[in-house]
Amino acid sequence: MYNKSVYKSRFNQSHNMRYPVFTSQKTNNDDYPSINAEMAKRTIRRILASHQNNPTTKSDSPLSGADKEAWWDYIKTNHPDNYNLAEKYYDKKQDPNLRGQCVISDLTINEYFEIYGLPRVATKDGVIYVNDKPVRRYVGNEKYRFLRNVFYKAHDDKNFYSWKKNQFYICQNNRCAWCKKKCQLKDTQVDHIKPLLFFGDNCAENLVIACKKCNFNKSAHTKGWNDGRNQSKENQKPAWIKNNTYDNLMNKALVDAEAKVISKEQEDKIDRITVKLEEILF
Predict the structure, then answer these.
(1) Among 2-6, 19-23, 131-135, 265-269, where is mean pLDDT lowest?
(2) pLDDT tens digits, residue range 111-122?
């Protein structure tokens, strides 16, 4: 027999109906009856019934490209309590707090958040929405894909590597721009101070050398990466970093890479059109 008062405490009011609330605390299996996967899913679907026709949350998972990076950055920056849940969801790990072996992959990320009473976050047309309200703009998938392709294409240019060596050894004295720890060049990456995702430029003035750990942690954050790591200030190049006399070489490498990427995209477009014409004519 389960305790009726404890059982009732597991339920809360939402959207004019009662639904199970699952906490991260360990509970006694005898406190309330288990809920199977189908029952859990049906309950969550009913909770979200009023949102099904909303275009901003209709296809919120899985996300891809710039949408996913923008969404993920917003979660980490503005809703850190959601981060572990989101990470668990995308890793497809089963949540032990979902009774009855409910598999995470059966739910969308916002349905998963809804169980915990957390904000629903979605992306559409270069805008992040939280609970259906627009909160932040980003460059959008096509533009972001293009900028990233240009940046990675520039890695093949010898001027890119010349700039990187001079930046690391001379301008930054073998140190990461953010944590200031000494490291090896092979353990570093070129990092955009202002992220491309949020309208940062592909130019030498917006680049520094960071260790892999800092570059990963910084991700697409637009604030908190500056002198003194002030979390409320926009990203800025640290004042201790010297000016790089090879900046013109890096900018040339980026310009040349952009021309190559544009040329490649045009060739691919012509190839696609040619294939379609051949299908029509022959």
Answers:
(1) 19-23
(2) 778 877 888 888
What residues contact 244, with CB distance under 8 A and at least 6 apart?
A: 163, 166, 167, 170, 171, 204, 250
The domain total for the chain is: 2
What domain range is 47 assigned to? 4-138
User: Token pair of 196, please?
Assistant: 């491309």
Do 45 and 59 lie in a common domain? Answer: yes
255: confidence class by pLDDT, cuts 50, 70, 90 = very high
Rounded Cα–Cα distance for residues 209 and 212 (Å): 9
Assigned token pair, 148? 């990233």
Instruction: Judge if 21 and 109 occupy the same domain.
Output: yes
Residue 146 included in any domain: yes
Is the same domain home to 132 and 158?
Answer: no
* Residues contacting 109, CB < 8 A, separation 6+: 60, 61, 86, 89, 90, 121
For residue 276, is it within any domain? no
Confidence band, pLDDT 50/70/90 cuts, at residue 46: low
* Nearest one of 75, 73, 1 to 31, comparing CA atoms: 1
Mind listing the pLDDT tens digit for each residue in 47-70?
A: 555 444 443 444 444 566 788 888
> Any idea what DSSP says for residue 119?
P
Exposure string of 242-276, with b = 16+ CB inside 10 Å and e = fewer, is eebebbebbbbbbebbbebbeeeeeeeeeeeeeee
Count other Cβ atoms within 10 Å, centred on residue 82: 20
